[in-house]
């Protein structure tokens, strides 16, 4: 399929009226050259969740806002700050490799305005269209033509299964199509070095980590991000690796990556190695090892954490059922209790110990239950689970 066949509408445009993406257009020029296209390769459940979050946010940015009555100069300043935050100037460059490290909270200079969702099979395309039917006018579904989609894109999200990544990235023309672009990978267990190997060959990937590396403009910028299963309901905890085989994450790339993943939840940035450290260096310093371990702990807790908490939740439900409570009611009570506890910690920033102390009372049911948990070694067992998951994450990152 030739690249010219992708004729996509601008997000928010209709057949009978001008584009309605007023907020998005404030951060993107109206010329075709400045349109930013996002392609999702292997657009399964996670890709759909991310696309839905982005599209819903763009629609909300464009939605009419109620009139606000300004009653003081402070209010004027507040509204002005809000307007300015949403009206950042358009980017003058289409590349993601020239600027310095960015503040994670920055508004991107450009937002995506075109979307390509790529799958391998027609039946998958049918499911994808059904899932994104509300945005069907602004999303192009591409079947088994990843290279052509990447040629049209400015940013690429690699959302396929880890086992599919080698064949997808080593396809003829893929490395050339990605030249000078940003590739965001959410493939679990696939490192940036492995991605470079799939794209450019093992020998060339090894050479890229030495002092005599090929020119940066000949490669794509690889960013690893790890969202979790809660992405499906907009409650993900995504860990973004701010240091990759292609160097520290630049300002414009960091802002865009953060914006994308905040559409499905919260984001933390963490380097997997110190600035300037070579990914191919065998003798890692203490700082390098600490950075790698800390980054792996972020990945383990963020990605595997929901599974750990699901086991605790299941145990609480089973205990209530054993005492005569219907399972549906027990599940609602336990899940809402866990959600409320997490919400209090997130909202107030308090240590969980303070929450626990407020709940317990002398001779009450809470203190008796807590003592049973301590006697059973729940605290140390959960902590060990995180350590074991971190050890596996460290090995996956090598």
From TrEMBL:
Put simply, this protein is called Delta 1-pyrroline-5-carboxylate reductase
Family to which the UniProt record says this protein belongs? Belongs to the pyrroline-5-carboxylate reductase family.
Q: Which UniProt keywords apply?
A: NADP, Oxidoreductase
Q: Which residues form the Pyrroline-5-carboxylate reductase catalytic N-terminal domain?
A: 112-187
Q: Where is the Pyrroline-5-carboxylate reductase dimerisation domain?
A: 296-393
Output the InterPro entries linked to this UniProt entry: 6-PGluconate_DH-like_C_sf (IPR008927), NAD(P)-bd_dom_sf (IPR036291), P5C_Rdtase_cat_N (IPR028939), P5CR_dimer (IPR029036), Pyrroline-COOH_reductase (IPR000304)
**Which leading EC class covers this enzyme?**
oxidoreductase
Q: Which domain of life is it from?
A: Eukaryota
Annotated Gene3D superfamilies:
NAD(P)-binding Rossmann-like Domain (3.40.50.720), ProC C-terminal domain-like (1.10.3730.10)
SUPFAM superfamilies attached to this UniProt entry: 6-phosphogluconate dehydrogenase C-terminal domain-like, NAD(P)-binding Rossmann-fold domains
Q: What is its EC number?
A: 1.5.1.2
Q: Which GO terms describe its molecular function?
A: pyrroline-5-carboxylate reductase activity
């Amino acid at each position: 399929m030739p690249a010219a066949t992708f004729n996509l509408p601008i997000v928010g445009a209709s057949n009978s009226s001008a584009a309605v993406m007023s907020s998005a257009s404030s951060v993107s020029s109206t010329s075709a050259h400045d349109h930013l296209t996002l392609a999702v390769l292997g657009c399964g459940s996670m890709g759909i969740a991310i696309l839905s979050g982005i599209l819903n946010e763009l629609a909300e940015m464009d939605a009419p806002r109620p009139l606000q009555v300004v009653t003081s100069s402070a209010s004027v300043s507040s509204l002005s700050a809000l307007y300015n935050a949403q009206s950042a100037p358009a980017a003058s460059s289409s590349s993601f490799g020239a600027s310095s490290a960015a503040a994670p909270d920055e508004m991107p200079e450009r937002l995506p305005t075109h979307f390509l969702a790529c799958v391998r099979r027609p039946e998958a395309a049918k499911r994808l269209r059904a899932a994104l039917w509300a945005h069907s006018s602004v999303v192009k579904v591409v079947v088994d033509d990843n290279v052509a989609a990447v040629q049209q894109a400015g940013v690429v999200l690699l959302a396929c299964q880890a086992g599919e990544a080698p064949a997808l990235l080593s396809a003829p023309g893929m490395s050339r199509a990605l030249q000078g672009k940003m590739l965001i990978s959410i493939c679990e267990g696939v490192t940036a070095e492995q991605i470079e190997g799939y794209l450019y060959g093992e020998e060339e990937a090894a050479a890229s980590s030495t002092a005599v590396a090929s020119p940066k403009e000949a490669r794509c910028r690889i960013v690893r991000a790890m969202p979790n299963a809660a992405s499906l309901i907009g409650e993900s905890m995504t860990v973004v690796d701010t240091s990759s085989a292609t160097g520290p994450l630049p300002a414009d790339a960091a802002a865009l990556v953060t914006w994308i993943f905040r559409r499905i939840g919260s984001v933390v940035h963490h380097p997997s190695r110190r600035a300037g450290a070579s990914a191919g260096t065998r003798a890692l310093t203490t700082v390098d090892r600490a950075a790698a371990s800390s980054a792996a702990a972020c990945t383990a807790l963020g990605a595997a954490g929901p599974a750990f908490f699901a086991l605790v939740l299941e145990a609480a439900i089973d205990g209530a059922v054993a005492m005569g409570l219907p399972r549906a009611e027990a599940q609602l009570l336990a899940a809402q209790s866990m959600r409320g506890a997490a919400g209090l910690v997130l909202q107030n920033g308090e240590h969980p110990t303070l929450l626990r102390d407020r709940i317990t009372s002398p001779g009450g049911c809470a203190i008796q239950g807590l003592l049973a948990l301590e006697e059973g070694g729940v605290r140390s067992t959960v902590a060990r689970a995180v350590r074991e998951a971190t050890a596996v994450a460290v090995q996956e990152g090598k």
